[in-house]
From TrEMBL:
PANTHER family: URG4-RELATED (PTHR22796), VWFA DOMAIN-CONTAINING PROTEIN (PTHR22796:SF1). This is Guanylate-binding protein N-terminal domain-containing protein. GO terms for molecular function: GTP binding; GTPase activity. InterPro entries: Guanylate-bd_N, P-loop_NTPase. Residues 972-1050 form the Guanylate-binding protein N-terminal domain. SUPFAM superfamilies: P-loop containing nucleoside triphosphate hydrolases. It comes from the Eukaryota.
Length: 1199
């Protein structure tokens, strides 16, 4: 069952690209080893304000979403047609990658092209309902529009599917029957014929005793060789609450290891001072010397400023005084040019004083006017002279001279001009036009005589104003230049101090890097997020001398010769012994090792190219450890099953997922109970759903894994001839089993240790003779054999080579085999020429689609195809709400056709659906405890121990992006959960009841507890928790109790799904609930839910009888436990029984309305549920913490 994961950082990056999450810099996502939880505070604020807030701007912002779905080549072709396929996508997207990706096109309205990228084999009939269906549902939930990309071959398959719908065999094709026929093999004898194809020489320095041929998806062999001690790097992220805590950690680390700090673009300023002071390397003396020099410089700066001001004053005084005679010379004032040096100098000085507001504002008004007196006199002198001349003609000399003197005195301190004034002498004269007479007439002796005394007084007043201005400038400039000098000196001092501190810090870093000669290095890359400090820490560690495994792949060249290619090496853990290695994919292995600590399973990926230093070192991409050592193991690569055999004969089978990235338990088997073999067994083989085992006495026996039926034991080798660990292998489509053993009759002492190849039929273990063609015989000392299809590889220890032979296997004709009929059967065998994999019901074409070339016949085929699809959908009896694909079907051939018709979705609505669609696993019950999942992944035990010591488990629990979502939600929070026995349809019911997307399957598919979130109207958040089935073989009684406690404590509405009977198993299940009643207590917000019993597969006529039976059983249960019972303590005594009709009926979906009404009623009660998402998050974290550490103290006492 597919278990999707939402890439949290990519969702945040997408939010930034859509113009939201403005508090985060998009460049932050380019940093290495970044974790999403570093942005939790920013994301909480973003969700609260921009997603769940009432901002109309974000409600109006729209985005067009156009999903693309189909096989990889078709999706790539469609993206290329839309100019959305980049070189970066070409280099990074691989065929084996799986996921949903996004391409954004910016325009007036942003267009998001979402496309599913999954391998083509996931579209086959047997796997269609898993990953492909989930990806399609994910895309359709994000947008009402869909483009499914088809190739020309898909169109041909569509036409053939439509043709088959119209054929006469339609009823047989759709029947639910399965037809078989018994087939007799042709007459021929048992036999295995080996024909030599070639050989591969081993290196002369190699030791064949250490060589092992590997089983799996491709032929390879391994060699174990010693590996010296070496250094390696281990990376992790460490968080500190403040700089002091970070500094203390660095000091402790530097005492043990060399230390290198890399601050990147952030720089060290944030940490420099604290680190120097904490380490005692603060440069006190150097900083004191800098301050002393500053004090000395400040003392001398005042004297320097005074000298500078004095020089400035003297220069200006001397310059102005040198021009004073010219400035008040009557001839110069009357006849001088405007560019006369005296006037230019004075004008420049006056403008300089005026521009300096500090000086100009302190001058009096009269002083300000007097400063430019010579300039004003020059501008008015001709008017004065003309008026004087006219005055002599109209008045007495004495009156005119006195009027002139008065005017000059007033003109000195007031910025006045000769103006029109009927009452004044000069006013009356000013109206007249000044005649252009000779200059001598104006500059007469009388005028000169009358102007002598006023000009002398004006000169004295002007000189006094200059002295006043220079005196004020003296004080202002002294203060200003002193402050500027001091400020400059202080800046220089700060630069010197920074230089001293930087040099001291550089010396500290240099000391840390090399204080332990030849020792290990720790590299720290710190970054600051608000007040906290996150560090990417890389630690060098010594790997002690041990063994390393070198893998060589066996390949056939174009000319038919065989050769070996080194894939790489993998270093073993100290003390580990290789049990088995198996090949997977085309460059990976699954390695099983044992040690005193137990058993370790690793997936090792080897690089396709050598590194620049010439080594090819395998990378461990998956690891799983088991506390108990095993003696044997085997792996079936086709079924992804691995079997571990313990000394006592106990077999535990695990199954890998499709990407070999997780390992889950599949089945347990006791050979001591199921077989008659002598323990311990010598060898095991997994083939076609059966486990074959041999013992040291030479007997073999098989167990069917599905029904655990056992074959009879047959002795195929003499007693003692089959060594422990000897390998069985399958040949000829698993009809014949091969193994290596000693010959039955061997007299020569030279050949007493030789072994050879034997074969038996897998059906009844009869001996199948092995013959050889030509000069070849698979017989030598230390013979090791492994087969792949019809080719067998055998190691010849004596000649140091690998022999390659082709096998021709035949079985005797008396054997009978049952076969699926090709006709009149849904599951009949079909050859490739039969076309479709099965009926159209399972083909992935039953979805929206378009093709690049549409013809009229194809359109008709499409219409009919969708009509059949709608007919089949209606048979499911689900409420479709008027949906009709055939009615709304449209055709287009343009690459961008339909884009304009795509409605823009609100960005906040799109992001809400994106964040809440994918559920996340929050815990898993295993090993009689509850393992808390952090971000959907199990937290390692050592990490849990550290958190436990720090009393910090609750804070460390995080549920991916759902945690910041819950933190941001300020409205009420309603929690509903599922409970019941395994495979009763709990996940299916929740999906149809709430619109969640939990995984569903016919078999067990839910592991632990999963959380999903739905956003309801009226500011209500619905949290949906799906729990795995109780009472299964995989779970112990204590694990069931833990899951039920977690379920009941936080749920407002628990849906208990069960069969139509109240038997002993249900009674035992309720008894387990009773044991968990008193484990968690002390919080009034917990255990407030209702128990909603959903009884499945009840016919309408039987509903009353079922309700009466259950009521009586519950009454009996309450009578037995009068003092305390789980119904009162865990569900507040609230019980509701719902009879659910069988699946696939209209009544089933109508019965869901009862649960929907109960949930609506619950949402309508203001006091129901948790008052905010943050409150619920705190409660569930606390409950998980209590159960995980088995801390049964009251919750109100929790720290």
């Amino acid at each position: 069952v597919v278990k999707p994961v939402l890439e949290e950082l990519e969702v945040m990056r997408l939010s930034c690209s859509l113009g939201m999450l403005s508090s985060v810099n998009p460049k932050d996502f380019e940093m290495k080893m970044l974790e999403a939880q570093e942005f939790d505070d920013d994301f909480v604020l973003f969700l609260r304000k921009e997603i769940f807030g009432t901002d109309e701007k974000h409600e109006a912002d729209g985005v067009k979403v156009m999903p693309q779905f189909g096989k990889q080549e078709a999706v790539k072709h469609e993206l290329q047609r839309n100019d959305c396929w980049s070189d970066e996508m070409e280099s990074n997207l691989k065929t084996e990658d799986q996921g949903v990706y996004c391409v954004a096109q910016k325009s007036d309205c942003t267009l998001l092209l979402l496309f599913g990228w999954i391998p083509d084999d996931l579209f086959c009939k047997s796997r269609l309902r898993d990953t492909a269906t989930y990806v399609l549902r994910f895309l359709t939930c994000l947008s009402p529009d869909m483009v499914c990309c088809l190739s020309s071959e898909d169109v041909k398959l569509l036409d053939r599917a439509v043709s088959s719908m119209n054929s006469n065999n339609l009823d047989a094709w759709r029947s639910f029957s399965v037809a078989f026929h018994v087939e007799r093999q042709e007459e021929q004898r048992d036999g295995v014929l080996c024909e030599k194809l070639g050989s591969i020489l081993l290196p002369m320095d190699s030791s064949p005793q250490n060589l092992r041929l590997l089983k799996g998806s491709y032929p390879a062999y391994s060699v174990v060789e010693p590996a010296p001690a070496t250094k390696c790097k281990e990376s992790h992220i460490q968080r500190f609450d403040n700089v002091s805590e970070f500094a203390s950690w660095l000091i402790n680390e530097s005492k043990q290891r060399n230390l290198r700090l890399d601050f990147g673009i952030m720089g060290p300023d944030h940490f420099c001072n604290v680190l120097l002071k904490t380490t005692g390397r603060w440069p006190e003396k150097e900083l004191k010397d800098v301050k002393d020099m500053l004090e000395r410089s400040l003392q001398t700066s005042l004297e320097q400023s005074m000298d500078r001001v004095q020089t400035y004053i003297e220069e200006h005084r001397a310059t102005l005084l040198s021009y004073m005679e010219s400035l008040f010379d009557l001839d110069v004032l009357y006849k001088g040019a405007k560019d006369e040096p005296a006037f230019v100098t004075l004008n420049k000085y006056v403008q300089e004083v005026q521009s300096d507001r500090s000086i100009w504002s302190k001058l009096g008004t009269s002083t300000q006017v007097t400063l430019n007196l010579p300039l004003r006199l020059k501008n008015q002198m001709k008017a004065i002279a003309s008026t004087f001349r006219d005055g002599l003609a109209n008045g007495s000399d004495k009156d005119v001279a006195e009027s002139l003197a008065v005017f000059i005195r007033e003109f000195t301190v007031l910025d006045t001009k000769i103006e029109t004034d009927n009452d004044g002498f000069f006013g009356r004269v000013w109206k007249k036009v000044w005649p252009r007479d000779q200059e001598s007439e104006f500059l007469s002796d009388k005028f000169r005589e009358c102007m002598a005394e006023p000009l002398n007084a004006a000169r004295q007043a002007w000189f006094q104003s200059i002295e006043t201005a220079l005196a004020i400038a003296d004080g202002v400039l002294l203060k200003r230049w002193s402050e500027e000098t001091q400020q400059s000196l202080r800046k220089s001092c700060q630069a010197d101090e920074h230089k001293v501190i930087s040099e001291a810090f550089d010396n500290l870093l240099l000391t840390w890097r090399g204080q332990h000669e030849g020792d290990l290095m720790t590299t720290v890359h710190p970054r600051v997020r608000q007040m906290a400090i996150f560090c990417d820490v890389e630690k060098e560690q010594w790997k002690p001398a041990t063994d390393q495994l070198k893998i060589f792949k066996l390949v056939q060249n174009d000319n038919g010769d065989f050769s070996s290619v080194e894939l790489g090496t993998h270093r073993l853990n100290p003390g580990a012994a290789i049990l088995k290695a198996f090949t997977i994919k085309n460059h990976c292995i699954v390695l099983v090792t044992t040690s005193p600590k137990g058993t370790l399973v690793e997936r090792v990926d080897f690089p396709l190219q050598r590194s620049w230093w010439g080594e090819k070192i395998g990378k461990v991409s998956f690891t799983r450890s088991f506390g108990r050592p095993v003696s044997l193991c085997d792996f079936n690569v086709d079924e992804r099953l691995v079997a571990f055999v313990e000394e006592g004969g106990r077999v535990v089978l695990y199954r890998f997922n499709e990407t070999f990235s997780s390992l889950e338990i599949y089945k347990r088997l006791e050979l001591s109970l199921r077989t008659s073999l002598t323990l311990p067994v010598a060898g095991v083989l997994l083939v076609d759903g059966s486990l074959y085992a041999t013992d040291t006495s030479g007997s073999i026996q098989s167990v069917n894994l599905k029904n655990q039926q056992t074959s009879r034991a047959v002795q195929i080798m003499p007693s003692g001839s089959c060594e422990p660990g000897s390998s069985l292998f399958a040949m000829a489509d698993n009809m014949v089993l091969g193994f290596v053993g000693e010959p039955k009759s061997e007299d020569s002492a030279e050949n007493s240790e030789c072994v050879e190849l034997f074969a038996v039929a897998s059906e009844d273990f009869r001996t199948v003779p092995v013959n050889y063609s030509g000069n070849v015989a698979l017989r030598s000392k230390g013979l090791c054999v492994q087969s792949f299809d019809d080719v067998v590889f055998a190691v010849n220890e004596k000649r140091k080579k690998i022999c390659v032979c082709r096998l021709a296997v035949t079985v005797r004709s008396e054997s009978l085999r049952i076969q699926h009929s090709k006709e009149h059967s849904v599951n009949g065998s079909k050859t490739e020429s039969d076309g479709l994999e099965g009926d159209e019901n399972h083909h992935w074409l039953r979805a929206f689609y378009h093709t690049d070339v549409i013809s009229e016949p194809t359109k008709e085929s499409c219409r009919y195809f969708f009509q059949v699809m709608m007919r089949d959908l209606r048979k499911l009896n689900k409420p479709l709400g008027g949906m009709d694909f055939a009615r709304d079907l449209a055709f287009s051939t343009e690459s961008n056709a339909g884009r304009d018709n795509v409605a823009a979705l609100p960005v906040r609505s799109f992001l809400q659906e994106l964040i809440t669609f994918v559920p996340i696993q929050i815990c898993r019950a295993e090993a009689n405890s509850l393992t808390v999942m952090t971000n959907g992944k199990a937290t390692p035990m050592d990490t849990q121990s550290q958190n436990l010591q720090a009393v910090d488990i609750a804070r460390s629990i995080r549920f991916g992006l759902l945690s910041p979502l819950l933190e941001s939600w300020q409205g009420r929070c309603i929690v509903i959960t599922s409970m019941g026995k395994q495979s009763t349809g709990k996940s299916y019911l929740l999906n149809h009841l709430t619109g969640s997307s939990f995984a569903i399957a016919g078999a067990r598919c839910t592991d632990g507890a999963w959380m999903s979130i739905r956003i309801l109207p009226k500011n209500v958040l619905l949290v949906v928790l799906d729990f795995e089935g109780l009472g299964s073989f995989e779970r112990t009684e204590q694990e069931d109790v833990f899951l039920s406690i977690l379920n009941a404590s936080i749920s407002m509405f628990t849906i208990f799904r069960m069969e139509m009977r109240f038997d002993k198993e249900i009674d035992v299940l309720f008894a387990r609930f009773q044991k968990g009643v008193a484990l968690i207590k002390g919080d009034p917000s917990l255990f407030r839910g209702k128990l909603y019993m959903s009884v499945k597969d009840v016919n309408p006529n039987d509903q009353k009888g079922v309700v009466d039976e259950f009521t009586a059983k519950f009454q009996k249960l309450l009578d037995v436990n009068k003092d305390r019972n789980f119904l009162v303590d865990m569900y507040s005594g609230k019980l509701q029984i719902n009879c659910s009709p069988p699946l696939g009926t209209k009544n089933y979906f109508q019965s869901l309305m009862g649960g929907q009404n109960s949930i609506k009623s619950l949402c309508g009660v203001e006091t129901a549920g948790f008052r905010s998402g943050k409150t619920f998050l705190y409660s569930i974290r606390l409950v998980l913490e209590k159960i995980a550490i088995l801390g049964w103290t009251p919750l109100d006492c929790a720290t």
